[in-house]
Amino acid sequence: MKTVVTSQQVAKLALVSQSAVSRTFTPGASVSKETRKKVLAAANALGYRPNAIARSLITRRSRIIALVMSYLENQFYPLVIEKLSQLLQRQGYHVLMFISEIDEVDGVLSEILQYQVDGIVMASVTLSTGLANTCADAGVPVIMINRVPDISALVRRATSSVTSDNYQGGRMVAQLLLERGHRRIAFIAGLENSSTNLERERGFNEVLSTAGCPAFRRAVGHYSFEGAEQATRELFKCADRPDAVFVANDHMAIAAMDVLRIELSLSVPRDVSVIGFDDIPQAAWGSYSLTTVIQSVQDMVSATVDLLQQQIQGEIDPHNVVIPCRIVERNSVRPAQSVGLG
Amino acid sequence: MKTVVTSQQVAKLALVSQSAVSRTFTPGASVSKETRKKVLAAANALGYRPNAIARSLITRRSRIIALVMSYLENQFYPLVIEKLSQLLQRQGYHVLMFISEIDEVDGVLSEILQYQVDGIVMASVTLSTGLANTCADAGVPVIMINRVPDISALVRRATSSVTSDNYQGGRMVAQLLLERGHRRIAFIAGLENSSTNLERERGFNEVLSTAGCPAFRRAVGHYSFEGAEQATRELFKCADRPDAVFVANDHMAIAAMDVLRIELSLSVPRDVSVIGFDDIPQAAWGSYSLTTVIQSVQDMVSATVDLLQQQIQGEIDPHNVVIPCRIVERNSVRPAQSVGLG
DNA sequence: TTGAAAGCGATACCAC
DNA sequence: GTGGTATCGCTTTCAA
Do B97 and A97 touch (CB under 8 A)? Predict the structure, then answer.
């Protein structure tokens, strides 16, 4: 039998008004100790739980944040889901998850808005300018993580973004490789028009050019595993091979290293240096030793949640937050920390 | 300025009753072509979107499904998120995501119930019997994916489950290894009390014992990367090494192969056969060649959604669905299909 | 501090 | 087919 306990029933049992019940479950409302006790006892006895739907209807706050993503194969994104939900849960928010092909985002958005979400976080997908404005009109803050909104959307000041300092990251990579003495430095691009790729490549090229040693060769991997494999083969098919490769993200870097090691029997980093970009779990890079530019998921997610809360409370206008990044050496000696359930 | 358009306003503009607006947006309601047209025009002009929250309040159906998970490091689980959301979205449902430590599930559940979800899907986490009953009382179907509920909960017939045929899978592994001529066959267990591990190991041991060749050695990896590394070292530290290892899931199998290859300089499968279990993206196993028992995420998710819908409509009682599994050979030649955005 | 009463934005049932 | 009205479960004035 389906039991639905309402505040009415609790009130009846506790011999108080329904308002009193409501107040008891509203933090910071004025209820006497006496009443509160009676209410809680009755609520407990009946197994009462406030109906969040009814509350949202009247408060016009659902405490739901929509999270829109595309394919999760790049392990960076599951990490975002995990950290973001945890953080939001701790702040009393909940995450409504949407998986969407890159070109279907607009359709999905209308569903999202029906749920009166308090905010929208988008990762790995971009929003059309029109829809960004729709959200702005509806008063729903939109935050893009790891992507920067279109210029046009920016102008409307409709969406915010949280990214790492991709430009500086690109520069750091170039500097490091030059210091290590490399002179035949190649680049594997991700999605060519994505802000991440543009910025990383720009910083990278700037330093190389300034040093009088422009990028030796370039191929495009579209941020996909297969694309990166193809790109790697392409870069290394000639006799004069690169001695270092900057790969636009870790997901592709792993594919690249597979090809280098298995198909071409090259050793990383002895024969060729490989540098990646992102923050993915150790399980993802397994037995590889990989230099990578870390963009901390934790930092990005914290910034996202802060921004979200401020905007929900109308404290600030949309803007772009840039998180610093750093280069680290990963190797296959793993500390004991990762857990995966099967 | 925050625009909130209600059906009232649409009604006024369209010169019809508010009921007519409601009907227009209710599939299968009786509205004349004429009225519908007027309403849609007005709605369009105002940018009206039905308020799902208000609808849920009265229909007592939120069309929200809660998805509860633990750590996502095992790539099987992001895959579950992806496939499940996609399928549910297509059926007009939405996914409320909860990340929860294994021992906090009960606390999280009370939040879930406040949102009047139509159903709960749990992956990699188990529910206490008490809470399972709470859900049953609230009329909220609970489906566990890749885990079987406690016996006690089963008795109450409170929760359903979707699992693959772990027992048969275990048997298949043993048979295959025996056929290949292995006689020193080791096992790396996952979480020892998890239903997945128990069943896989049971089937595995049964065949080995019957063949007069019981498991050569055994270690526990707790379904974690580090645990599996430790377990592998343990299994191979003596002089008489196993010639094959069945690892209770792919996530651990990858860790095991790392240790075999890097620390012990053994070749897989030349020196030692490794067999895993699960269905994880190719990007996860990278350059390895791995034999594995596939439990299809797609199949499991489909079954979950079917079960969910039937139970929401009260058509059937909770029960356990078992999906057949199959053994396949994975190798590092990848077809072009996986995509990961950076 | 407390209770009565007015909504929040939709659906459902009712006559017409 | 259509419009009026009660209702869903809660928060929020407003008097008392």
Answer: yes
* CATH architecture for the domain at B7-50: Orthogonal Bundle (1.10)
Judge: A98–B98 Cβ closer than 8 Å, yes or no: no
Instruction: Give pLDDT tens digits along chain B (342 positions).
Output: 567 899 999 999 999 999 999 999 998 888 999 999 999 999 999 999 999 999 999 999 999 999 999 989 999 999 999 999 999 999 999 999 999 988 888 889 999 999 999 999 999 887 787 888 889 888 999 999 999 887 766 656 778 999 999 999 999 999 999 999 999 999 999 999 999 999 999 999 999 999 999 999 999 999 999 999 999 999 999 999 999 999 999 999 999 998 998 889 998 889 999 999 999 988 888 778 889 999 999 999 999 999 999 999 988 888 899 999 999 998 765 433 333 345
Distance C10 C1' – B48 CA (angstroms): 13
| Number of H-type helices and E-type strands within chain B | 14, 12
CB-facing half-sphere around the CA of A320: CA atoms within 13 A: 15
Bridge partners of residue B320, in order along the sequence: B161
**How far is B280 from A294, CA to CA, in rounded Å?**
25
- Residue of A91, A79, A105 whose CA lies nearest to B340: A79
Is the CB of B91 less than 7 A from some atom of nucleic acid strand D? no
Mark yes or no for CB contact A111/B124 under 8 Å.
no
**Which residues in chain A have Cβ-Cβ distances shorter than 8 Å to B266?**
none
Q: For residue A138, which residues of chain B lie inside 8 Å, CB to CB?
A: 2-4
The CATH number of B64-164+296-323, from 3.90.640.10, 3.40.50.1970, 1.20.1260.10, 3.40.50.2300, is 3.40.50.2300
Measured between CA atoms, the residue of chain B closest to residue A223 is B341
Alpha-carbon span B78 to B196, nearest angstrom? 18
Classify the phi-psi angles of A240: left when phi > 0, otherwise alpha if psi is within -120 to 50, otherwise beta. Answer: beta
DSSP-derived secondary structure for A248-277: SSHHHHHHHHHIIIIIS---TTTT-EEEEE
Asked whether the beta carbons of residue A81 and residue B71 sit closer than 8 angstroms, the reply is no
Range(s) within chain B of domains with CATH label 3.40.50.2300: 64-164+296-323, 166-295+327-338
- The CATH architecture that domain A166-295+327-338 belongs to is 3-Layer(aba) Sandwich (3.40)
Distance in Å, residue B19 CA to nucleotide C15 C1': 15
Q: Cα–chain-centroid distance for residue B36? A: 41
The tally of CA atoms less than 13 A away on the side-chain side of residue B110 is 10
Query: Is the CB of residue B35 less than 8 Å from the CB of residue B10?
Result: no
- Distance in angstroms: CA B167, C1' D10: 49
CB < 7 Å to strand C — which of 51-110 in chain A? 54, 57-58, 60
Bases on strand C under 7 Å from any protein CB: 1-5, 7-13
Chain A window 50-109: residues with CB closer than 7 Å to nucleic chain D are: 50-51, 54-55, 57-59
Residue A213 burial by Cβ neighbours in a 10 Å radius (0-12, 13-18, 19+): middle
CATH 1.10.260.40 residue ranges in chain B?
7-50
Consecutive H or E run containing A142: strand A142-145
Bond before B269 cis per omega within 30 degrees = yes
Chain D: positions less than 7 Å from a protein CB are 1-5, 7-13
Q: What is the DSSP letter of B340?
A: -
Radius of gyration of chain A (CA): 25
Place of tokens 């072509």: B33
